[in-house]
Amino acid sequence: MPVSIRDVALRAGVSVGTVSNVLNRPDEVSADSVDRVSRAIEDLGYVRNDAARKLRAGVSTTVGFVVLDGQNPFYNDVVRGAEDEATKHGIAILYGNTDEDLGREKLYLDLFEEQQVRGLLIAPYGDVTARLQRLRARGIAAVLVDRFSGDGRFSSVSVDSVVGGRMAVEHLIEGGRRHIAFVGGPFDIRQVNDRLAGARVAAENAAVPVEVEVVATAAMTVEDGVAAGARIIARPRREWPDALFAANDLLALGLLQSLVVDGRMLVPHDIAIIGFDDIPFAAAAAVPLSSIRQPSRMIGRTALRIVLEEAADSESIARQTVFQPELVVRASTLPR
Amino acid sequence: MPVSIRDVALRAGVSVGTVSNVLNRPDEVSADSVDRVSRAIEDLGYVRNDAARKLRAGVSTTVGFVVLDGQNPFYNDVVRGAEDEATKHGIAILYGNTDEDLGREKLYLDLFEEQQVRGLLIAPYGDVTARLQRLRARGIAAVLVDRFSGDGRFSSVSVDSVVGGRMAVEHLIEGGRRHIAFVGGPFDIRQVNDRLAGARVAAENAAVPVEVEVVATAAMTVEDGVAAGARIIARPRREWPDALFAANDLLALGLLQSLVVDGRMLVPHDIAIIGFDDIPFAAAAAVPLSSIRQPSRMIGRTALRIVLEEAADSESIARQTVFQPELVVRASTLPR
DNA sequence: GAAAGTTGATGAATCGATTCAGGCAGGTTT
DNA sequence: AAACCTGCCTGAATCGATTCATCAACTTTC
Known about the structure:
alpha/beta, homodimer, DNA-binding, elongated, six-stranded mixed beta sheet
């Protein structure tokens, strides 16, 4: 029932070696053989068995992508970029969403190791360097996505989160805001820390005194944003901040939603809001949301390109690619 | 360098057959052997080679998921549901996003066929029955997702789009709307047709005369929604509809955005808007968006469960699972 | 015209896990 | 005591594509 390379060889009247050569190095085979083999493949509906190929040749045609938060459109765009590049090379993407859960992260790393993927892209949650080290020893290259590799042991493709945080808060300060609440968490996610650090830098460098307080969230979903917003509103009025910097757009949308529903604080009159990522929904929000844009597709494309290069050349040394973020101003941060 | 089952056998002082048995049927092996083998695996850091396993045993540990529109949070939720179920069975998901492109659809079907995935979930764009038929002949089960299988040749998991369309328009009519524009396309996507059909049914059954017109879009993104909105606004005022039924929430958000920016038509006072899918961003929109909710995670979970069952039992017959949609009323369709 | 080189094809060995016919030890049945 | 189980283990054969040493046929070169 299943058609193997042997059947093709028989039909074409050549040896299996020749069929394999037609498939993999057609230029080293006579035109005649290429023809006959191609026709046989067509006739029999032969499809290459990737498992056998992978076993013998040791080359995989899949790349794993472990994502921190699959519900975040930002990561979808990154995946889309990686996908575009992958299909160019005939490579498919094994997708895993960890939802900020260490158990799931480990599970996917195990799964992808068994699969012997060609390479791994990962937006990590926990500390994965030890694990990635081990994968590397097994010949699986890994590239960190949306996260700078602190110790430089792995390649990474990211956006400068510190600069992004600074841009956001500088913009708020220019708009006349003086009491800024940074909303985000958990703080074991590196990006969250970096964005906050950038915010603090901007506040310290400001010509006027600016207060940056932290409103911690358990995760970075719309719901967490709504909850954080409710907590802020519940304060006595004179303790209200005049600007919110959300660690990502999902949080920002949630914050916006709870403020709009409540109605006592007007955006941007009483309070400005800025997010991070510039997801497509930011522009469609109740009050169009200012944000710090990351070149998401480019991040995915670049990461995939790098991981393939590293897979091809095990000697290659790790390199950090850092894109610059971009401030996108919309209604939610108009000066009062 | 790489550790094989042979190395484990050597270290544990047993045969390779026994190691394999420990891995796959530990209850048929003495406790002592299980112990020694487990320890050897631990010591050597052995990881099973999935390619060899797949080649010999013919069982795959991946399932392919071909998605119509990766930027749509609805499909992300479906994938998330499938993922949850998949990890329970130690299965990873090969992910492909076609973006309503026939070439990409074919590409992924080819790729997944070579991979000999255990099964395939697909939200199809073109007519894929012939292709799926062929996959089935090769022992790869396929389940249609978010799409009823017209001829019943394949299992499917979907929501009744006709009922959903009817619910949406009945709701609009109850709110006093009489001139409804259905915004969506392309019409070779089945769901679009069904939703429109449901809308027409509701209009015909109404006690009052109701007009349903069609505003066709090239795709169903936020941008297409914005463009369609602009076209509607450009009409002479007396030709404006008093309600919009968008074929999905992305379109609805785009429509809303262009109307809000323009400012001449107030939502919901002059014009009501309802979408489809109830993505998480619908609630956070400029005017919180009414929508027809689909149980997205449940769809993904169910589809994966079914495809695994079919993969296990090639005799199993196709079954159609149809969930009922649910009307979610928010501000965008308040009666005037 | 012999030696050397080129081109293209061959087919056995190989990757690593699984499978299964067969074997062995010790216990049970008749 | 012979026949028969039972439980557990062994190791060679196998899956299908790739690789590579080897060979045949043909060209060049001196």
